[in-house]
Amino acid sequence: MIKRRGLAQVEVLVCGFAVLLLASLGVAVVQSSAQQALETRDAQHQRQIGKAMMAYAEVEKGRFPVPGMALRLPVEMPGGTSQRILGRGKPDWSLNTTANLYAMMVMQQLVSPELLVSPLEVSHLVKVIEEYDFGAYSPFGENATMWDPAFQVDPGNVTVTSNASYATEALCGARLIKHWNTKSKRPSSWPLLSLRGPRDGVTSGPEFVQSPTLRFMGSPDQWSSWVLFADLHVERRDTPDIANARGEREDLFSGADPAGEQPWMGVFIAASQNDATPTWDPLLPETVAKPTVPAAAGSKASPPQPE
Question: Is 260 within 8 Å of 176 (Cβ atoms)?
């Protein structure tokens, strides 16, 4: 008579552990693939916004959108009166905020509101505007506007909902005149857009490790983002700086020379001719400053490249 031997308890435990291990690896791979898909979509969002800026520049003598040059200050008229005349008057530098830039692009139907919110967005304070008011367009009169004033981009203000994810150049100083156009002498190294970054471009300390911007691409200890350049190529950066034509490192977010021509990325809530005021995402509590998507164990897959 043949005796049947059942599985030993140790064998059952080993099999169970193997199943759990394979399942956890499978989940990690799925999560990693999902993250890569979101990153690819984000690169596509940025490129589409860049193409919209190029389309605007084609009819504006090469200049990218500038709110304060579209809605200019009133022109003094005979008799001591003044009135707004499209294309005339001094620029209203105070209008060159990030919110006005994007709201102006939506009003002109260069981009959709959905395109301005990244698939990688991690902040509950950033959402697509529910109903953009195209009827708000009124370029004349005392309360003139060329965009919906309800469109907001201020991720540092926890009392409002922001309607865009992306940092852009500060529209002030020499950078606005020399590089915010298709005639820049350094298009392949001049950044137009990126995801928001850590406060002042710091790369260490609490203001870095507790910045929610580290969670965009799932890293616990580094900031990562696609960066769109003026020649419309998109490049992944894993530090908040770039190399200029001379090989020198330029911090994207520090704003060390507001009136100069160096790149200065951010979300800007106020502006003047030679300066701008950035806002930053509120810091996370130390206990939750962790990556949102773990990388697959042993995975060495290269980051997804935009089409």
Answer: no
Element spanning 69, H or E: helix 67-70
How many folded domains does the chain comprise?
A: 1
Q: Strand, coil or helix: what is 286?
A: helix
Residue with tokens 């599985």: 7
Q: Of 19, 23, 41, whose CA–CA distance to 31 is shortest?
A: 23
CA distance 134 to 146: 9
- The whole-angstrom separation of Cα 222 and Cα 218 is 9
Residues in contact with 264: Cβ distance below 8 Å, sequence separation at least 6, in sequence order? 169, 170, 173, 175, 252, 253, 254, 255, 257, 258, 276
CA distances from 266 to 82, 206, 243, 261 (A): 34, 19, 18, 15
CA separation, residue 263 to residues 174, 199, 208, 240 (Å): 10, 15, 20, 11
Does 296 fall in a domain? no
DSSP state of 146: S
Distance CA 214, CA 225 (A): 9
Sign of the Cα pseudo-torsion (97, 101, 107, 113, in order): negative
Number of Cβ within 10 Å of residue 295's Cβ equals: 16
What does the alpha-carbon distance between residue 34 and residue 38 come to, in Å, rounded to a whole number? 6
Q: What is the pLDDT of residues 62-119, one digit of tens each?
A: 999 999 999 999 988 887 788 888 888 999 999 999 999 999 999 999 999 999 999 9
Q: How many CB atoms lie within 10 A of CB 202?
A: 18
Return phi, psi of residue 138, to 5°: -155, 85
Look up the pTM and report it.
Answer: 0.84
For residue 64, what are the domain limits?
A: 32-288
Q: Is residue 25 situated within a structural domain?
A: no
Spatial contact of 155 and 126, defined as CB atoms under 8 Å apart? yes
Residue 206 within any structural domain of the chain = yes
Residue 121's pLDDT band (cuts 50, 70, 90): very high
Q: CA–CA separation, 36 vs 83, rounded Å?
A: 52
> Distance from first CA to last CA of the chain, Å, rounded?
68
